[in-house]
Design a protein that fits this description.
single chain, 398 residues, alpha/beta, Rossmann fold, Helicase, Ruva Protein, domain 3, Ubiquitin-like (UB roll), 3 domains, 7-stranded mixed β-sheet, 5-stranded mixed β-sheet, 14 helices
Length: 398
């Protein structure tokens, strides 16, 4: 799974990326610090199944802290976009195309209003962050329109001449956008698009591009720098102004400070939690103490967390509607090497036992016989739909 970080330059995208991955990236308060995409591993957080079985898990990938399982996802931070990016401004086309493979997008905005439309620092509150919500959607929609229109004329002529079935023809033309026939069928019906491609004008294509973007690149908005005076009021206003959008208040700088302190064993902190515990106060200088106190009083107590982990979790579990499922080799919850609950897969909600078996390994899918839900001890068939947190033993004929 690939999560893309996108947005205007200088809004804290690189800070969010570093806070999520602890990767070494350049962070500076100026436009276009990031030019080439940064790629790293981040984690989504779930309650670990080991609690229910009274065992201690041994993840092969990711880690587990106090019953919280952190499952890895790939994170990519592309360079900041500016208005007109779809026309190539600021190397926009290149940056947008870096997002082609992303399954879900995190749009970082400066909710404090201290970054203008060109990505330049201005007085907090002097710029309306609502402009950024609208600007990015326009850029992404126009980018999708460009991709939809690429080769459209010869495609549509051929489809009409050969009397190709509309849904199949469109799905084939748009396959590079992650579009399938079912998506096309639902869109054509919902948008009441003409069955005859010869009637499709620019307005129809724009409507199609916008809806395809929403489906194939769902987006959550991380309202960053919420700890700046006046930002909380802006966040409340944006929630009212954009009720159909998923917005999360966050402070990437605070999350980075907490994770760095935890990394150096100065505090006990679990990502996404609303508090931390200082381990060695004598090792902290006055600046560090004041910084941690500021985060506790102005971020954690006010918003419940820094928001960074919530953004990642909501992007995967609420927007993409993925679930976490544990495959095990036997009822002892172990693999062939004796590791307990070693794997945890992120898969689409509604996945069947057989489909999940193929996700684990092609051979396991090919030789699937039945599966066992180890929480209920019930045998489940190949058409059984799995639930979030299921622990599944898959039995094969080999």
């Amino acid at each position: 799974m690939l999560v893309g970080i996108v947005g205007k330059t200088n809004t804290g995208k690189s800070t969010f990326f570093k806070a999520s991955t602890l990767a070494e990236v350049e962070i500076e308060n100026r436009p276009f610090v990031t030019i080439k995409p940064n790629s790293g591993v981040s984690f989504v957080k779930i309650e670990c199944a080991d609690k229910e079985f009274n065992v201690k898990c041994q993840p092969k990938h990711g880690y587990c802290l106090d019953g919280c399982r952190f499952v890895p996802v790939q994170l990519m931070d592309v360079a900041g976009l500016v208005p007109g990016a779809h026309e190539g401004k600021g190397l926009g086309n290149q940056f947008l195309d870096d997002l082609r493979q992303a399954d879900v997008l995190i749009h970082i905005i400066d909710v404090s209003g201290s970054t203008n439309e060109e990505g330049e620092s201005v007085e907090p509150g002097s710029y309306d962050p609502a402009n950024d919500v609208r600007f990015l959607e326009v850029e992404l929609d126009m980018w999708y329109l460009r991709l939809v229109k690429k080769g459209w004329e010869p495609f549509s002529k051929k489809a009409i001449q050969e009397r190709q079935e509309l849904n199949k023809a469109l799905a084939s033309h748009l396959i590079g956008l992650g579009v399938n026939e079912k998506m096309v069928e639902e869109l054509v019906k919902r948008l009441e698009l003409p069955e005859d491609l010869g009637q499709w004008d620019e307005n129809v294509l724009e409507k199609l591009a916008t809806e395809l973007r929403k489906i194939t690149k769902p987006m959550i908005i991380a309202c960053n720098k919420v700890d700046v005076p006046g930002a909380a009021e802006n966040f409340s206003r944006l929630e009212n102004e954009f009720p159909d959008h998923m917005l999360v208040a966050c402070s990437a700088e605070s999350e980075l400070a907490l994770r760095e302190a935890a990394k150096h064993e100065l505090i006990d902190y679990i990502a996404g939690e609303g508090d931390f515990k200082i381990k060695y106060e004598s090792k902290l200088n006055e600046k560090q103490k004041k910084g941690l106190e500021f985060v506790k009083e102005n971020v954690l107590k006010k918003f419940g967390s820094t928001g960074v982990q919530q953004v990642l979790d909501d992007a995967v579990f609420k927007l993409l509607k993925y679930i976490a499922v544990y495959p095990v080799a036997n009822s002892h919850l172990k693999d062939k090497d004796g590791n307990v609950l070693p794997d945890c897969f992120l898969v689409p909600d509604g996945i069947t036992s057989l489909e999940f078996a193929y996700k684990v390994h092609t051979d396991i899918g090919n030789n699937f016989v039945k599966a066992v839900d180890l929480k209920t001890k019930q045998i489940i068939g190949k058409e059984h739909q799995l639930k979030n947190g299921d622990v599944v033993e898959i039995m094969t004929s080999k």
